[in-house]
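SEQUENCE-TO-STRUCTURE ENTRY
===========================
What this section holds: a protein sequence and its matching fold, both as plain text.
Question of interest: how does this chain fold, as expressed in backbone structure tokens?
***
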Amino acid sequence: MNRREFLQCAAILITGVSASQLGFTLSAEQTVYLAAAPDYNTTPVNFFTPVQREIVTAMCEAIIPRTDTPGAIDAGVPQFLELMVADWLNDEERGIFISGLQDIADRIPQEYGKPFSQLGSQEQLQILEALEDAASDSSWYDLGNIQQVYMSDAPFICQMKELTIWGFFTSEEGGSQVLRYDPMPMYFDGDIPLSPDDSSWSNSF
């Protein structure tokens, strides 16, 4: 089972939705794994330190803030992300993520006088944009890049964004309240135009 397949299994275990709702077909190996896996919705997780958890929670909300629709915190993304880092990332990926968190924990209070979680939204956004600028030479940002496997050497900010977006849009809140959720059984139209302010369609039905 490759890294992307592991991520797909994690989304099912943590959000409690089915493979058909997520819009992909499971391999035989994934099916066997999921049949024997515990219920992640009730799995306690205590991998991050309190400071790390505050940073992750604030970053998730900065990436997908609550507006007139739910944000990352509403969708339980920090819990999803902590489970992913603890149980699903390999040693290399986990090391990159934890090093990135430690950099934020050590550097931001010195530069801004406050921890990341206590900064205003504009300052948090500036920090995230600076992290993206510093990581911009990664192939994660290649134009038109559609990843088939999880990139083990992706910089911290790329991991943070990918896991946050993955967790949010496979959640009930993201799939039904942010994306357009209007199932039409036995009907498919592969060319539905969207205006600039339209949401994409959800696969979660």
Notes: Residues 91-112 form the longest helix (22 residues). The mean pLDDT is 76. The two ends are 25 Å apart (CA to CA).
